[in-house]
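Human: My hope is that you can spare some time for a protein that puzzles me. I am handing you a single protein, as its sequence and its fold in token form. Could you go through the record with me and say what the backbone is doing? Take your time, and here it is.
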Amino acid sequence: MTGAGPTCSVLANALERGYGITPVADHFSAVTSIKGFLPTGEYYQSGVAEMDMTPEQLADKSFKWKHGPYLDGIFTQSANLVVTEATISLDKAGDGFTSFYMQFFDESSFTDAYEVVSEIFDRVGRNVGSMNLMDKRRVSAMMADNPNGA
């Protein structure tokens, strides 16, 4: 799930260094391999892909950090590459999902909110996919009917 909305692809979200409410909130960290065309028309793939002569090229797709300089990051949030192929590592589905809301009605309670959130992260760590701090307008927008339909 991306934090980008219903019309954004998983790949676009990852290449824009987007996030999502997932165990690995940083979606670009899950991209292990990208290939595509540079503005010059040259084809780009990592050095590992260049050396791997197997049809599957599993060495390139399995490990994010290649040998030598890591270049894939310069192709994010840019027009430096037309991506034609990408490998995205997936985590296993968790045992369950729970969401909850906390309301704090005035600015003076922000310190209390910070302490509660810090304690949650300390106790459950990586099991928390994300937390959002939202104002009244954001909450209202999320609770309203979608103007595009179900």
The two ends are 17 Å apart (CA to CA). The mean pLDDT is 83. Helices lie at 10-15, 47-51, 58-62, 110-124, 136-143. Strands lie at 31-37, 43-44, 82-88.
